[in-house]
Design brief:
alpha/beta, 3 strands
């Protein structure tokens, strides 16, 4: 069985604290919803929480991939 990971996307201080109280500390924190975060998420198993200020649509300008820089 695959471990279910928790992802927080676009949370601020108050929202982060509240989400931690309910879901525990996240396994991944993503500053914004971009295509990089979608590469980290297993949409069949993981839990994804999107903060109040984050967009539901991935941001195309900020889709940085670490491996593309080397």
């Amino acid at each position: 069985m695959t471990k279910r990971l928790v992802h927080f996307i676009g949370f601020d201080g108050d929202g982060y604290a509240a989400a931690c109280r309910v879901f525990g500390r996240p396994d991944f924190i993503h500053k914004m919803n971009d295509f990089r975060s979608h590469g980290d998420i297993d949409f069949d198993n993981d839990i994804v929480l999107i903060g109040r200020g984050a967009s539901l649509t991935p941001h195309p300008k900020f889709s940085d991939q670490d491996h593309a820089r080397h």
